[in-house]
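User: Hey, quick favor. My workstation is busy. Could you predict this chain's structure for me?
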Amino acid sequence: MEDIIIGTEAVRDGVVTRYELQRWYRPIFGNVHAPKNRMITLRDRIFAAWLFSRREGIVTGLAASALHGSAWVDRDIDIELVFKFPRAPRGIIARDDRIQADEWTRIAGIPVATAERTAFDLGRFRRYDALSRLDALMQVKPYTVDDVMRLTERYKGARGVAKLKAVLPLVDGGAQSPMESWWREVVIDSGFPKPTTQIPVVDEFGRHVRYLDFGWREFQVAVEYDGDQHQTDRTQYLKDRWVIPELRRLRWTVISVVKEDDPVRVIGDLREALVARGWRGAVQIPRYAYASPRRRAHGDAPNLHSGRGSAS
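Assistant: No problem, here it is.
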């Protein structure tokens, strides 16, 4: 990233001439430039945003989660910085928030919010996908809910804290994809007991059969989210097909879902399966479950249950 430069600073220090800057570089953010022939990565954009802040900002939010190792983060996301700048350029979100010394670290020389502080900000500011982003972060950089809750005490009254407190009890680092987190949230918001993720199933001889995405061991009912790889990977498809009869033999009821499935139908099937195994409880379909398949497929369905969902 050493060839990403602050233009005026590089000219002043003799790193490049004005002509070379105009001829061979292009701006990423304002006065921050990269070589024209360089393929700009997310890490490059994060570094450029930090340079734009005159090396004073602290990376947080989704960009920080990516630096910690979280998956499923697009290259063109807005870079969130804890930095006072009222008119940040497009592609940078500057938050004039307080942050203390024990809430940030350095990754590749860039100041980055710790996993706990990143979770604190993700839960407060992610509008539709807070749970999946918190799950993904916990999977690669384990943090405790208690540590994040301590930040809510430190910053009482901060924007979005109520939303964060609502979603934190649902966080589970066992989720394997954003849509798996989304379906788990639908299930919880519908009134079912909180499920366990990555349930190991063994046969009567102790041989491993399968890890199930999430479900209830006591009822032997589980939900499996089938992502795109199940449709394109022949080996995965055959493996899934072979294991289903064995799960049935072991008395597991497994409901498979894809992103385009109607949650209302899935909730009905799940209730029927759990009731057949002895569960007695009420189900209430959350409003966002009625979103169109297209919105669900693009992860646009908001969380509206119990007041959660709109940005505070």
